[in-house]
Amino acid sequence: MIDFPLIAVVLAAGKGTRFKSEKPKVVHQILGKPMLWYTLFGVRWIKPQKTVIVVGHKKDEVINAVNCDGCEFVYQENQMGTGHAVYTAKEYFKDFDGYVLIINGDTPLVRGETLHNAGEYLKALIRYEGADLTNYRGYRNKSIAGVVLTARVPNPYGYGRIIKDKDHRVIKIVEEKDANNQEKQINEVNSGIYFFYAPYLIQALEKLENKNAQEEYYLTDVIEILRQEEKYVYALEIPDYTEILGVNDRLQLAGVENILKERYISFWALNGTTFHNPQSVWIEFDVDLSKDVEVHQNVVLQGKTFIDEGTVIEPNCIIRNSKIGKNVKILANSYIEDSEIQDNAVIGPFARIRGGSVIKEEAVIGNFVEVKNSVIGRKTNARHLSYLGDAEIGEEVNIGAGTITCNFDGFKKHKTVIKDRAFIGSDTMLVAPVVIGEEAITGSGSVITKDVPDKALAIERNHQKIIENYAEKRKKKYEKS
Fold first, then answer.
1. Alpha-carbon distance 23 to 256, whole Å?
2. Binning pLDDT at 50, 70 and 90, where does residue 441 land?
3. What DSSP element (H or E) covers 127?
4. Residues 126, 95, 53, 173, CA torsion sign
5. The pLDDT of residue 465
6. Bridge partners, residue 163, by sequence
């Protein structure tokens, strides 16, 4: 949190033409969330008094994608440069005696801690100048106009180079196309993240001109305008250059996504999760892992997923928006979504658990079993080749191979109830709605259309017919034809 008056302005109006997409650039997904969401997450971490988002191209799509409660949105009808975008939001800070954070919506790697540190650096500069931080009134006559975040990058091509004096005051920011050979050797570059003192920013914005080939108003020109008035912007170099990486095309999007994924894996590994071949694991922001969880290669963990202590997830599994209990074994090639798996259960291999399902303690859902919108009771086994949909299954039930709950009549879904300790024979069709009583048994190959009482046996089969020497007769018939 920054403890001085601050308004954040997030620039998110661009089309992102290099994405070659119908969607606005900032709504493209990174690990399951819009790119802009991550920028806003860093901004929210420092708790500005107000957050203003400048939108333009397909503004409604951007607003709906980020769903930012408490944010204000400003529409920039014509995209005429970063300076013009900030000027569009001036009504929110024109009478504000505090600071304005300006940040691009396509910088999803910036950390809230970094923004906080920039605020602390700015406070230190103000103290050095002798200003009273408890009363910002009257600061207008001081010489410190703000701070720009910079970083040294391995390949500065395409970035604005930072030209500064020995006191780290920025003289100017030179864009790639305008830099001479000496300036191009500089690898300290502009992040596009600024803290400006609001009254000074307003004055400089009013003086911006668009006398350039693009006929755009550049925010970087503000620094030179302020310097001419002996108001200085200081450069704060951050140690991790990846935080300032922007996203201008899909290749850069993939690179940023990979960096974020590595951050999350590093965090959870340091907090007690084992990752086998972590480069192959996909993990999103809202995933929560406990200690002694073990994640094998090619696992995908998405959405609001929680995995409790001691659970092992074997290769090629996908888990989305689900709660996994303690000491669960999720065997290879299984898929779980919008469901709950309770302690000590076993899932898979090649199992699919669909939305609304609860697999209770010590239950086993085996290979090629699909469960949908069903409750599977404690210690119940469905080990092979079955479909259990819209079912309520009790404790210690045995589900034989090939069992199907026939839940859909073409118009409505119907419920199957199987009570405790029932035994469902292999290849049983349970035509819902139907109830199988406690300790009831169904004979293999039966089609059950009526309720079965407790402890009863239900068998539905046609009489077996045997035709002697049929193979020879069939062969002779074929030879004649």
1. 18
2. very high
3. helix 112-129
4. negative
5. 87
6. 172
Joined tokens for residue 101: 């954070």
Residue with token string 């604005």: 160
**Closest residue by Cα to residue 332 from 310, 350, 357:** 350
Find out whether the peptide bond into 154 is cis, omega within 30 degrees of 0.
no
Residue 206 CB: number of other CB atoms within 10 A? 10
Residue with tokens 């302690």: 343
CA torsion 56-57-58-59 (nearest 10°) is -10
Closest CA to 443 of 426, 464, 418: 426
Q: How confident is the model at residue 129 (pLDDT cuts 50, 70, 90)?
A: low
- Count of alpha carbons within 13 angstroms of residue 421, beta-carbon side: 5
pLDDT tens-digit profile of 176-211?
888 899 999 999 999 999 999 999 999 999 999 988
State the DSSP H helix or E strand holding residue 118, giving kind and residue range, or none if neither.
helix 112-129
pLDDT band for 125, please (50, 70, 90 cuts): confident
8 Å CB contact between 40 and 20: no
Burial 375-388 (b: 16+ CB within 10 A, else e): bbbbbbbbbebbbb
CA distance 157 to 148: 19
Cα angle: 371, vertex 359, 456; to 5 degrees = 75
Q: Between these two residues, 137 and 420, which has the higher pLDDT value?
A: 420
47 pLDDT above the threshold of 90: yes
Tokens of 173: 């920011």
CA quadruple 295, 298, 301, 306: dihedral, nearest 10 = -20
Residues forming the active site: 384
Residue 349: asked if its preceding bond is cis (omega within 30°), the reply is: yes
Residues comprising the chain, all counted: 481
354 contact partners, CB below 8 Å, separation of at least 6: 337, 338, 339, 370, 371, 372, 373
Residue 139's pLDDT band (boundaries 50, 70, 90)? very low
Between 214 and 52, the more confident residue is 52
The whole model's pTM is what? Answer: 0.90
Helix (H, G, I), strand (E, B) or coil at 375: strand
Beta-sheet strands, E only, within 157-264:
161-164, 170-174, 188-197, 232-237
Q: Are 361 and 346 in contact (CB under 8 A)?
A: no
Task: State how beta strands 358-359 and 375-376 pair.
Answer: parallel
Residue tagged 């074994």 (tokens): 329
From first CA to last CA, the distance across the chain in angstroms is: 88
